[in-house]
Amino acid sequence: MGALKFIVWTVCAVGLGIFLSSGNVDGRTPLQHMERTWKRTVKPDTMDRMKDGLEDAYEDAKGAVSRSTDAAPRERITAEDRAAVDRIIAKKK
Fold this sequence. Notes:
This protein is mostly helical and 93 residues long. The protein is built from 4 helices and no strands.
């Protein structure tokens, strides 16, 4: 039953895609109508500015994550642990 549903939905999606790309509505395909409407309603310069802003933010974040720091890593060893290690080293000498 699941395979049959998959096949039916796939056929419907392919059929819709074929209609959108080759169907004729008022002398144009539905895809051409959508592109024309998109170009009229969405200002390309606004989209370009937003895209550039996102690219800049991505580059800043990438730089911040991949940057190596000169500071030594923070140690999480307590004074007691340090003393125990020092005693073990002293015994080996």
